[in-house]
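Morning!

This is the sequence you dropped in the shared folder:
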Amino acid sequence: MPFSLPKKLVRIFYFKARTATDNPLPIKEGIEIIELVTNGTVYFQHGKDDLKLGCGAMFWHVAGEKTIHRTELSSPYECLSAHFVTPSRDQRPAPRLTIIADHQRTLELSQELLHAYHDAAVDRTVLAHYAYSRFLWEAHRGTIQRTAQIRPRSLTMSLAFLEAHFKQQEVGVPELARAGGISESHLHVLFRRYLDQTPSQALLLRRLHEAKLLLSSTDQAIKSLPSQCGFAGIETFYRAFGRHIGLTPLAYRVRHQPPPF
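The structure's back. Tokens below.
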């Protein structure tokens, strides 16, 4: 699909819903807004269906539309929001809704763009072109994956359970298998085939990314993070973080927290 690069990046920010129904933002002429859900639940009217969506849902809004705004108080959505000034066009550059199936990929993209936006050394024009092209690529990739590789329902159920319960220390491979209604051995086969990783790896990486998000976006005490992210204790957390991230949690926080305004 042909497209033109944006004229300008207006802003990138991280939004957390506070009520069950926030006021949606109308999209003005010459503006495109991309919202990437990173946590929680959002409801979206897609044709005749009222969809319940979570991490990885990406919305590409153009003039005349409105941003997402419906959620659950028990699980309010959080999202990265990017606003661009774009050339007038007759055709939407990407589908209104696509899904990034890999939650790890979603969180990494959100963090990368947030950090780049708050880095004064990053050229805004270069960032605008990179961010817009990256969103377009993810939308295209999501469309291909949806049509070429439909995941088994059992895997989808296991992944949904993982996303909803990864913060609980007692959740492991047996619980993921039960959520999908399959054996542990079959679960391993599906994870390898469709995600190229084991269930244990997926669970650990999700917990680590939650820790990275808290380290970079809050000032919570590091000793309080293991229990919030599903780790059994502080030592287990530090070992896993160092082995997979290559930094201590404190070093990661120092490196990735945005500068003060």
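Headline: The radius of gyration is 19 Å.

More detail when I'm at my desk.
O.
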